[in-house]
From TrEMBL:
[4Fe-4S] cluster 1 binds at C50, C54, C57. The gene is moaA. This is GTP 3',8-cyclase. Binds 2 [4Fe-4S] clusters. Binds 1 [4Fe-4S] cluster coordinated with 3 cysteines and an exchangeable S-adenosyl-L-methionine and 1 [4Fe-4S] cluster coordinated with 3 cysteines and the GTP-derived substrate. The keyword Iron applies. It comes from Krasilnikoviella flava. Pfam families: Mob_synth_C, Radical_SAM. SUPFAM superfamilies: Radical SAM enzymes. It is an enzyme of class 4 (lyase). S-adenosyl-L-methionine binds at Y56, G98, S149, M219. GTP binds at R43, R94, T125, K185, R292, T293, R294.
Length: 372
């Protein structure tokens, strides 16, 4: 991973970079890029640590963890979220990781962000292990929504995918989330030969409980670099699997920048059962309508999950930079966002691959380290 300091390695006492920033960048306003996209949706990684080891995300032995003092503190997170909402037009903030529930001060972080003058919508993406004892406090602190990752309802398959036998703990967390929050979304990644044929059962379970399920295509962000385009489960296959049990029809509601393509789910008699979403980042990319900006746990701005560079905000913040400087650095980082992630840019026809020369290189950081 390369950290880009935008050509300003030296920070004078006030923390103000002393090297010129690109002249064509916007000096005021929101997080606009050269292609006219505006980022209003911020993902903040609160930690790189996790209590699961999902095969598509982490290696079995885990990853070296960041030193504690290089991870943003509660005050630093709230300060940067404040800059994003007040100066940069961010409207939604999602806390993620790693596993955000591993932060002891999560409730306080939520409370402080909810008290910001321009309060953003606040949500959490979690594996829900331990959520049962914290869901009520999180709602009281101001959390608006929860997304829980759940790939299967079978305990053995869960243990295979997550490399931890924690299905019951995740389900307890989901129960608590359902008691406290109006809308619970479930995220699932399907892996061929492991849980692909669990998709319809998982959807039926979610529909019965009023949860909105979203299937996410597996992306090449795993630590093991085992992602294989030929083996990954595509959105088309997910539709096919679900089609064996349900009728899916495209949702009329505008997508409005959401990563998931949504479908209304009907039973064999045409009765409406609910909705399902499919996030087809690989086979049907939505980069042209991307509205996301990301902060890593170390306070680096990433303009894309697949970016190879980051812009450090935490260093300048700790060196005394004021909010105007931090906003300027953030705007500059997003101004450089690429048109697309390049996974569909193979130069070899329509087939996707990640071989050298295919137009795509897997970032050095994994999903857990970036903040998914
Ligand atoms: N630990 C929390 C969780 O699992 O919900 C938050 C972080 S996790 C990185 C966020 C989301 O990324 C999860 O829904 C997970 O399933 C998804 N994810 C992780 N690795 C992925 C990959 N290689 N491709 C697609 N989605 C992935
Ligand atoms: Fe942990 Fe979430 Fe990655 Fe699974 S997907 S290893 S729960 S960060």
């Amino acid at each position: 991973m390369t950290t880009v300091s935008l050509g300003m390695p030296r920070l004078p006492a006030a923390g103000v970079p002393d090297v010129a920033l690109p002249a064509d960048r916007p000096a005021t306003g929101g997080l606009v890029d050269r292609f006219g996209r505006v980022a209003t949706d911020l993902r903040v990684s609160l930690t790189d640590r996790c209590n699961l080891r999902c095969t598509y995300c982490m290696p079995a032995e885990g990853l070296p963890t960041l030193p504690k003092d290089s991870v943003m503190t509660r005050e630093e997170i709230v300060r940067l979220v404040g800059v994003a909402t007040r100066d940069l037009g961010v409207r939604q903030v999602r806390f993620t990781g790693g596993e955000p529930l591993l932060r002891r001060d999560l409730v306080e972080i939520v409370r402080d962000c909810a008290a910001l003058p321009l309060r953003p919508e606040l949500s959490l993406t979690t594996n829900a292990v331990g959520l049962d004892s914290r869901a009520a406090a999180l709602r009281e602190a101001g959390l608006d929504r929860v997304n829980v990752s759940l790939d299967t309802l079978d305990p053995d398959t869960f243990a295979t995918l997550a490399r931890r036998p924690f299905l019951a703990r995740t389900l307890a967390g989901i129960d608590a989330a359902a008691r406290e929050f109006d809308l619970v979304k479930i995220n699932a990644v399907l892996v061929r030969g492991v849980n692909l044929d669990h998709a319809a059962e998982l959807l039926a379970w979610c529909l019965e409980r009023g949860f909105e399920l979203r299937f996410i295509e597996q992306m090449p962000l795993d630590a093991d670099h085992a992602w294989d385009r030929a083996a990954m489960v595509t959105a088309a296959e997910v539709r096919e699997q679900l089609g064996e049990r349900f009728a899916l029809e495209p949702d009329e509601e505008p997508r409005d920048g959401a990563p998931a393509e949504r479908f209304v789910v009907r039973d064999a008699h045409g009765g409406r059962l609910g909705r399902v979403g499919i996030i087809a980042s690989v086979t049907e990319p939505f980069c042209g309508d991307c509205r996301r900006t990301r902060l890593t746990a170390e306070g680096g701005v990433r303009d894309c999950l697949f970016a190879h560079t980051e812009t450090d905000l935490l260093g300048p913040l700790r060196a005394g930079a004021d909010d105007a400087v931090l906003a300027d650095l953030w705007r500059t980082a997003m101004w450089g966002k690429q048109a697309g992630h390049g996974m569909d840019d193979t130069g070899s026809g329509t087939d996707l691959d990640t071989r050298p020369g295919s137009g795509f290189t897997q970032p050095a950081r994994t999903m857990s380290a970036i903040g998914g």
